[in-house]
Amino acid sequence: MEQAVVAAQLYTVRDFTKTAQELAAALHKVHQMGYQAVEGVGSVAISPAEYKAMLEKEGLVLCGTHTGFDRLVGDLPAVINEHKLWNCSNIGIPSMPGRYRELGEEGFRRFAKEASEIGRKVHDAGLTLYYHNHSFEFQRFGKRIALDIIYEESDPRYLQAQVDTYWVQHGGGDPAAWCAKVKGRMTLVHLKDMVIANGAQAMAEVGEGNLNWPAILQACREGGVRWYVVEQDVCQRDPFESLAISYNNLKAMGLR
User: Fold this and answer.
1) What angle do CA 170, 175, 179 make, to 5 degrees?
2) Residue 241: helix, strand or coil by DSSP?
3) What is the mean pLDDT of the chain?
């Protein structure tokens, strides 16, 4: 089994990566914390070749990206070529576009089919497509929730999972149970914690909230997760400090 690696999702520090200089500085800070890998998000303000050089300078692996679904539909050959240049074998769908949600259950079924079709092309190119959930996929249609529809009606060969622990909990699900449910179908997981602040759910650094991390990490280990990606959409402190806290807590839990 390949060694587990803790990675940082760059969306956490998105406000500090808007220029080439900021991106270089952000990658340096992330590496200095101890992270060995990052998960990219959207487009960056530099060319793919410059991005590759930046990552290599810091000794960081690009373990995956979040690439907009519309770009996958309209510009897939370029996306594949970029990922091959970066030696990055995983392409992630950050969210299902709203136009599918407007169609209700049929929209989720349609998305599952269309994502599988894109995933087949990605697979044929030697790469892997995966889907990142939020909490809207916990909308119920009869006896099934939407996330079940996405995974049951897509081809597991062509569409992998990326469970987001916070958003599963936010939707009323059990993060550990979901990590177990997609066993063998998830290489990258998204880790963020949940607290209650002023009577409302809020994001927190891994290990600083209320999620059951021993159970979550055990399910990930048993399910073959390789990349443990820390992401915090909203931070209550400096985002780099939040990334450092999560990293150190995960190290204390036994991850490296």
Assistant:
1) 140
2) helix
3) 96
Rounded CA-CA distance 149/116 in Å is 13
Per-residue burial over 235-255, b if 16 or more Cβ lie within 10 Å, else e, is beeebbebbbbbbebbeeeeb
| CATH numeric code, 5-252 | 3.20.20.150
76-109 confidence digits (pLDDT tens): 999 999 999 999 999 999 999 999 999 999 999 9
C-alpha span between 30 and 26 (Å, rounded): 6
Q: 3-class SS at 131?
A: strand
Burial of 180 (0-12, 13-18, 19+ CB in 10 A): middle
Q: Give the per-residue pLDDT at 45.
A: 78
Q: What is the pLDDT of residues 10-40, one digit of tens each?
A: 999 999 999 999 999 999 999 999 999 999 9
The domain ranges of the chain are 5-252
